[in-house]
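Structure, all two chains, one model.
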Amino acid sequence: MLFRILHNSSLRSKIAMLAVPAVLLAFALFASWVTQRQEQAFLNRTQIHMRFITGDFVNHHLKKNYELLERNGLQEIESYSTRYQEDAFNVLKEQLSTIGGVALLVDVSGTIKFSSDPEPERFRPVIDRVLVHAASGQEHGQFCTQPEDLPLGYLFCDTYFAPWQLNILYLIDRQEVTRELLHDRKLYFAGAGISALLTGLLLFFLINHFVVKRLTFLLGAIERLRKGDFSGRLRLSARDEIGRLATAFDEMTEQLEKITSAKDNFNHQLQAANKELESFAYSVSHDLRAPLRAVDGFSQALAEDYGDQLDVDARKYLDYLRQGAQEMGILIDDLLTLSRSTRGELNLEWVDLSLIARAVVDVLQERNPERTVDVTIEPDLKACCDKRLIKVALENLFGNAWKYTGKTEQAKISLTLTREDDKTIEIAIADNGAGFNNDYAGKLFEPFQRLHRKDEFPGSGIGLSTVQRIINRHGGIIRGEGQVGHGAVFYLKLPKERNSHV
Amino acid sequence: MYDMKKILIVEDDPKDELLIRRSLKNAGLINPIVVANDGERALDALFPKDGSEGMQPALILLDLMLPRISGVDVLKKIRTEKRTRKIPVVILTSSDEPYDIDSCYTCGANSYVRKPVNFDDFSKAVERVGLYWILTNESPETECS
């Protein structure tokens, strides 16, 4: 869940979500570690202090009083010793009233002889411990335990005074010791928290300024570039990784701009050349045919109007003249079709190839009503192409099939689907006509290449190269297979979608 | 005497003009023929500048590639004037550019015949034109821009 939110959120909110809490957490951990160390040191110091106080009490006051009694030989007398002990203890009590804590004098039997606290019995567990210690015969010097060992929340210090067989216990409530420290710690935590927050915010703004803003800037530039605006440059002066990225980006943009302008330039030239070619083809179409028309038209007029004045040879020559002019006319037309198939916009639409093929065959049949050809056309073959151009291609292919089956008995021509997937369709136009030698299959689509003699089958040798250009312009593929005397098959692979190539 | 309706041929090539005349004759159309050598003269004949009544031909055979004023412009003018807009116009041209064919029909040509090299075909085309003219003598409404 959190990962998903982080994954989708912006870099800025990621930093805000992670950096600030992370810094806060780090500061909190550090602060708690420091305060723990501080508390420990404070407690240690207090214990040293306690040791000093009890040591002072034993060595100066208790021992002094004992020696005073000893000098007079009164140290064994109970009443004296008790009074002198009490005197010494009162001095200690005086001290405790200012520095805090509880002092106890306990004899070996565990009886509390003096106490600075009105309820000394609550310290019984501590007393028992000390006595166990004494009974085990350990050296009975000064003895302080760690506060954890105590069942009560007290620090304690114990000293044994051998001559009177007295245990001196000094206890201080831990909370009393650390109260001041706790007060300080609250302040400390508050300060640490605020500074952590400030550091987090500072970090956020620094990262925001040095990373996120620049990345956003870079992103904007990339967006402009994507829309085709190559004029923008980042020109970041920074020398860090983002700065280097920006510099590399600027260089890349510059190169792209150069390439694009070169490409535009080339396109302009290409367009101009295309236009020129178009107007050239147009004038060829008009002007080149006019003289031919005159040759053909007047030789026809001559033959018709003055035919009776000419002999057989002269009429034959006139026929040759007309044939030549007409062939030339067909050649010009074919060349024009070839040139037209490579220029102009492709007007792509969803085209029913079967319908076009049927129309093309109908025209062929109309032209040669005497011929009987078995034509089968598979229905509903569709592709994405330019209707006008694909019609020219099918006219050529069916025209060839029609022409090359001219000397075949039981001529057959078929259009069938050979392969189809989501993006392409492959159709085959097959005939059982003259065919061709498969070794020359590669030459089929070269302009003016003919695989048959002109007197066998007439033609300009331009048709198939026109077909190939048309198919190639659609991003399609054409290939031909043939066998001499057994016919030819042409496979056309065409796209079913716009902008897709086979 | 019965006034035969005229045929206006707009054609700049005299050889083509001669062949057209011959084809019309062979097709049996013996109407008087008026020839304009370019677009300007064709417009002069149809719409005289001196204000006199212009020619009212029964059929116009119009070439596209003409000096000065192109065939398409002549066609546009014919189709915008009320008096001439119903005259059948047949385009006779060498061009079979799809663009030319489209623009002629958009501008209200009744028919489009490509001048072929083979004049047998041409004669047949003229026969068809003659038949068309005799049968309909109507011009469609145009949407020429």
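Confidence is low (pLDDT under 50) at residues 137-141 of chain B.
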